[in-house]
Amino acid sequence: MIKEKTKLFRKKVLINSAKILIGFAILSVGCESKSHYDGPLSPEESVKTFEFAEDLKAEIFATEPNVIDPVAMEFDEQGNAYVVGMLDAYKPDSVKGKGRIVMLKDLNGDGRADTSIVFADSLREATSILPWQGGLIVTAAPNILYFKDTDGDGRADSKEVLFTGFFNKNEEAQISNLRFGIDNWIYANNNGQAGEITFNRVPGARKLLMQGADFRFRLDRNQFELTTGTGQYGLALDDWGHRFFTQNSLHIQQAVIPRRYLERNPFLPASAKKAIVNISDHDPLMFQKTPAPYWRAERTNRRNKQFKENHLDRVEYEKDHFTAATGATLYDGDALPKEYYSNVFTGDGSGSLVHRDILSNSDTAPFFVARRPEQEKNKEFLASTDTWVRPVNFTVGPNGDFYMIDMYRQHIETPMSIPEDLQVGMDFNAGNRYGRIYRIVPKNAPAYKKVSVDLRSTKSSDLVASLSHQNRWWRLQAQRLLLERQDKTVIPAVRDLFNKSEDPRFRLHAIYVLEGMNALDAEIVKKAMKDPSAGVRENAAMLSERYPQCLPQLKEMTTDSSIRVAFQATLSLGEFNEQSVTAVLANVLEKHGQSAWFRTAVLSSSAGASVDLLKNLSQKSSFFNSTAPWKFQFLNDFATVVGARNQKAQIIALLETISQSAKAKSWQPTVVKGLTTGLEVSKGSDASVKESLKNIEAEVDVNTAKAVQDLKAVLL
Amino acid sequence: MRNKEYSRRKFISKCIGSSSIFMAGGALIFSSCDSNKSNPADKKQTSATNFCDDLSNVSKSELEKRKTFAYVDRSPLPDRSCGNCALFVPKTDNQSCGECMLFKGPVRAAGHCIQWASKEQP
Question: Do B16 and A313 touch (CB under 8 A)?
Fold first, then answer.
């Protein structure tokens, strides 16, 4: 009996053991995914996997443990390198708040950081820094903070919340990328996320509603406002203040119209509100050296299957297409060959590569075109075969070298966007101990030589000399320090620089140093409006808005040979309400009306959206004599604005203007449709008016005269 | 003694039995690795007319996801919305809304979230 029981027991054990083994086998075959992903390399091994398109090389500047999960680096006026470590990226809420900023030290001067001092820690999702008044401004959603080390031990002992209220639900799209602009404003990307922003230094100020916009502020004047967005992670400002930013699959976009111009006309229809443009002429291809990770390949397969099942003419690619573009940075140093100056570098975290764009002026549009360099038509500036390499950002230092910031992680993706079953076997903590920063230099560059920097104790007059440095890092530091100091004794020297410098970049710095010291005047601006450099003229047009005596010259600039200058002059002209402005805007429309950008520039202004503008156009033979799609679009948008403004006298005047000449009459249906569209959204239109408008819309193409009469009747 | 031995066997046997059930359960759970099946309840729709607004069958975690992705019903950007996003799957019977590949529940063609991606044609 006992024997039988023992036998039975053994049998049971065998069967159940077999079941366990099968279970393990299923698990290891079906779900074991660690083998799908490679392990890390040492910095020395990893750097060997970098393939440059040209004669450049990468030198190790900093590694773990001095930097962990680095996402941004800035050099302060003393030449100290500060690095933001986003140690809480891709972590659950329970472990957030582990971010830190470290100051790197290269004690033996060999060009490689050998120690670090924690400047600030316990930061939640810190993403960028900017030196200011001896401390650092830090973006860490929902805040923008200001830290300062007041006792000189290298660690911040003072913390101030400057702004609060930014979106903070997703670390990939929060307030980031602090940049000091040539115009003395500090810019930051906000990815257009909603938020209600308060500025603690101005307690009574109206809250800013951020949705759809980026952010800019001036701490020297306690100003803050929305700016054209939506930049995600990566913000490049060129010498003339143009803004370029990155967003996942769109690796380079430009802010074409500053938001303040769109905001001055609250009645602009959505069709006329476009302010940013993708300027790449080579989307969406990139050339990576790494294979797609298992999870991405599998997710792409599934998505493509879903597209097919839903009969969608769409395809997703698992690799070689921008999906994680990040860190757009303009190279403005003097250590790389001259042809790299003003190129924009963008990383793609998923492709372990760095892409380079050359910005070219367009003859036909008021924005740049981003092109691949000839030698990089089918390869990238830098591509690695190490799948852990994550180039997320870049910076330029006082020595003019170009630095690449590599988070160095096994995975770089919001876990939430990966199907749960594919997350099995993915270790999102793999990389928590790593981080690398490389210095990119020409292959034949001489051995690293430390640059001694002490701008903090430099005399203001010597800072003026730094405004003429070939490396923009020095120029911007000097401009910022002069702004902070407000040492008016330098004004004559700065004016001298403006008047005598042969380099337009230096002249523009001089202009804005004067602006920052309230020492700019109409005479300087007038001279700048005639500057041989388009970039200087463009900025001068903007500054001329403050000086009515510049108006005649500004009008002339609307016919400038540079389309970007003519465009800015059109935008700036809209800041003036003089009667004479309307006729100039009508001329602009005739010349550049086929461009939606110019139409918006005109329509955004008070004069450009006035009935007088149409009267001016009707007096010109060319506008109404021939039809063109852009004319219909403009008239429709124009009438929509007039309708939405809902001022009866203006509407009647518009209808009369359009009825006066036989030629103009053919445009009546477009105008009536625009008016009804505008009136429908106007707060002043009640339900019965809206009902009547629908009937008018329905009859306008059949009996235009009656529709016009009915519309007038509704208004009366 | 016998009783003790029997009890030990019984205990081991029970443990192994339970373990195999656990393993089988585990295998079942992990077998979802190779599928993207969703809860049928998630697919339940009340009617085409209120599909766009009906979040009653969407789980709390999926609602949290749409918040994290900062989904809004109306895009703040003039030329970018779910309707021209690569991850949007329109409903054939109602073009004004559809589904997103990143989170469950209805999304509007006029909506927007931070994961917006430009469409690529084959």
Answer: no
B78 contact residues in A (CB cutoff 8 A): 270-271, 273-274
Residue B8 has pLDDT above 50, yes or no: no
pLDDT band at B26, cuts 50/70/90?
A: very low
pLDDT digits (tens, 9 = 90+) for A286-322: 999 999 999 999 999 999 999 999 999 999 999 999 9
Mutate to test the interface with B, among A4, A20, A176, A311 (most CBs of B within 10 A): A20
* In A190-256, beta strands by DSSP E: 196-199, 208-209, 213-218, 223-228, 235-237, 243-247, 250-255
Residue A297 gets which letter from DSSP? H
Residue type, A705: A
> Any idea what the Cα angle at residue A60 is, between residues A57 and A64, rounded to 5°?
150
Q: Determine the pLDDT at residue A336.
A: 96
Position A342 scores a pLDDT of: 98
Q: Which of B2, B67, B120 sits opposite A169 (nearest CB)?
A: B67
Count other C-beta atoms under 10 Å from residue A457's C-beta. 7
Across the interface, which of B2, B20, B70 has its CB nearest the CB of A16?
Answer: B20
Q: How confident is the model at residue B47 (pLDDT cuts 50, 70, 90)?
A: very low
Q: How far apart are CA A60 and CA A45, in angstroms?
A: 11
pLDDT at A292: 97
Dist. CA A353–CA A357, nearest whole Å: 13
**What's the gap in Å between the CA of A428 and the closest CA on chain B?**
17
- Chain A residues with CB-CB distance to B2 below 8 A: 2
User: Above 90 in pLDDT, residue A271?
Assistant: no
Which residue of A8, A26, A599, A637 is the best one to mutate when testing the B interface, meaning the one whose CB has the most B CBs within 10 A? A26
Peptide bond into B106 cis (omega under 30): no
Domain B48-122 has CATH 3.10.450.710: no
Give the distance from residue B8's alpha carbon to the nearest chain A alpha carbon, in angstroms.
11
Using CA atoms in the order A436, A440, A441, A446, what is the torsion angle rounded to 10 degrees? Answer: -10
Q: Which residues, in sequence order, are CB contacts of A592 under 8 Å at separation 6+?
A: A563, A566, A567, A570, A598
Residue A28 has pLDDT above 50, yes or no: no
Mean pLDDT computed over every residue of chain A: 93
Q: Using one digit for the tens of pLDDT, what is the confidence trace for A165-224?
A: 999 988 889 999 999 999 999 999 999 999 999 999 999 999 999 999 999 999 999 999
pLDDT-based confidence at residue B51 (cuts at 50, 70, 90): confident
For residue A9, the model assigns a pLDDT of: 54
Contacts of B27 in chain A (CB under 8 A): 23, 26-27, 30
The strand pairing partners of A213, in sequence order, are A228
Tokens representing A75? 């050099």
Residues A668 and A645: their CA atoms lie apart, in Å, by 19
ipTM: 0.78
B19, B27, B76: residue with CB nearest A192: B76
Under DSSP, the state recorded for B65 is H
- Please give the span between the terminal C-alpha atoms of chain A, in angstroms, as a whole number: 109
Cα R_g (chain A), whole angstroms: 30
Domains of chain A: 52-267+275-442 (2.120.10.30), 611-716 (no CATH)
Sign of the torsion formed by the C-alpha atoms of B66, B68, B72 and B76: negative
Residue A2 pLDDT more than 90? no
Distance between CA A363 and CA B17 in Å, rounded?
78
Of B27, B69, B121, the CB nearest to A23: B27
Write the DSSP symbol of residue A261. Answer: H
